[in-house]
Design a protein that fits this description.
Helices cover 66% and strands 0% of the residues. The chain is mainly alpha-helical.
Length: 107
């Protein structure tokens, strides 16, 4: 059985987690303004890695071992089992895949 690892999945999860943390920090005072854009700088630096290997994420998710699941939890926390993050992850995967195709011209 071939194993794919979890690098690309981890990259995408880190991007999603970064966006969530930036959003929480931005909404902390109940309003969002231009100053809050600074909260999104770090997550946006994670976008290239999330885009680059997004086409490998389905294969990685298809053969996750218990050890890999635990490694993901260790890396990004309990968001791995949170359905809300699952939806955000799915949306980010679609976005990253579309961006990859547009940028590279590959499908």
């Amino acid at each position: 059985m071939e194993t794919y690892g979890i690098k690309e999945t981890t990259d995408l999860l880190k991007f999603v987690a970064g966006l969530v943390e930036a959003g929480k920090a931005s909404f902390e005072d109940g309003k969002v303004n231009l100053v809050d854009l600074a909260n999104f700088v770090l997550p946006l630096t994670l976008l290239p890695a999330a885009i680059e290997g997004v086409n490998q994420v389905p294969a990685e998710l298809g053969d996750l071992s218990d050890e890999e699941i635990q490694a993901l939890v260790n890396e990004v926390g309990d968001i791995v089992g949170d359905e809300r993050f699952g939806r955000a992850f799915e949306g980010a995967a679609i976005l990253a895949d579309a961006l990859y195709e547009i940028i590279t011209g590959k499908q």
